Amino acid sequence: MNMGMQEITSEYDTELANEEGQKLHRAWKLDVLNDILVLERYGSPCGWAELRLKKKGLEVYRIMKPWGSEERTEHFFNQPKRVYTGDQFSFVEYIAQIAGQGRFPTAEEYVRAGLDTDVEKQYRDNLQKILDTETK
Questions:
Q1: The whole model's pTM is what?
Q2: Could you give the CA distance from residue 87 to residue 79 in angstroms, rounded to a whole number?
Q3: Which long-range contacts (CB under 8 A, 24 or more apart) does 82-89 make?
């Protein structure tokens, strides 16, 4: 089990839905370098349609995958930043790994694992913005 990640679905209203009507399926609390973030998964047990990352209730990241499509779109602070097709290393996996290790791995560790150098830099920069963001 990932020590930096804890399921908290039972603390949520399971009738909560996203703009497309997809129900909240699961939720986790992540301790990312001593900053608490919440990851919400919308969809069904058969698959996800949207993942949202929130800091103190405010969305800081979202990845969307329309039903029947393999295209994924990642947004940081409500701005689309990356579109890709198929199962690739996403920001969710990036932060889950950091939460689990309790440290910021070097860029080289991610690049060796197959993450594009430019994408790793984008993820690192956006994570820094998320951790630096003060929310009420």
A1: 0.85
A2: 21
A3: 82/119, 82/122, 89/113, 89/114, 89/115, 89/119
